[in-house]
Design brief:
Elements: H1 20-37, H2 40-49, H3 54-79, H4 84-111
Helix pairs in contact: 1-2, 1-3, 1-4, 2-3, 3-4
Length: 126
Amino acid sequence: MSETTPPAGNPYQTAQPFSPADEKLWATLIHLGGIFFYFLPALIGYIVLKDRGPFIRQHSTSALNFQLTVLLGYAVGLFTIWIFFIGAIILAAVAVVNIVFSIVAAVAANRGEYYVYPVAIRFIVA
């Protein structure tokens, strides 16, 4: 039996940066995914894609911060649902804000522009 030495260098490949078109596509999908799946697309995008370029890092971080803020808003709405009118108004307002700002962010991402949600709490700093 002959001994072979393993190849030198890092055994793990580093992620290749996205092309600008791919960055815009993924950033747009992350923002739009928040409408239907709340924080999950932003979380997955942040974990998997954040090292693929500064554009996708900023958009995934921004979307994740916004979706976590939306989650907090839903929690407040559900906590106050026993006061029917207040809880219902909070839940409806959070849903509308989520849809509107996610669409605005997706359009900005598709244009190749950076976007920061105006009502997001910065839980994660890029």
